[in-house]
Fold each of these.
Amino acid sequence: MTETAQARLKRMRMRSWRRGTKEMDLILGPYADAHLAGMSEQILVVYDVLLEENDQDLLPWVLGQASPPKALAGLIAEIGVFARARLGVGQAAGQAAGLPAGRSA
């Protein structure tokens, strides 16, 4: 049985909010709420791959403490930018706190 587009987005949103660590819940949950519905098929595929990663790997990538795989790097950078903006953290303060600098638009 094939997953419908609506069921896919619902699954991805749930996986974003129920990660296993509260830190990643609070990073990916709001990001998913704000962006999932508008993502292209190509980005949805990458986001689905990202959701399969362990939180112990994801958090250091988002915080800029470790380099993410190339296939996920752009999306991880975008998530970091979103998290900083959501928290009202400026770029310099975000980098001091360990959040990566975002890519330019």
Amino acid sequence: MNGCTSHPRADCPTSSTIACQAAGFEPHIAVRTEQAPSALALALEGLGLTLVPGNVVAPDFPGLMLWPDPPVRRQLSVYTRVRPDPITAAFVAAIRRGTLATPPHILDRLGSPL
């Protein structure tokens, strides 16, 4: 099965590649793009599968969506040069709590992740 991945550097492993390798196989990347929405559009046109953040998927997305199994997790880091303002501080606090960042329309369609 071909895949579409969204990462600008061909020599840099993507979340998709790392997830496939962890599952025991090497993906065949048919197309690389710098934009996750482009990878989603290419997959929708039948070029292959893609793994994109949930916030890229529109509520009316007509394609098939599945949770990755095993789940794919990314570590997030926050950096600032100055003391964070209240909104930034709230964002950092939410990340520390491990807030699920999956949009509600995806949770409605797929249920909770594994």
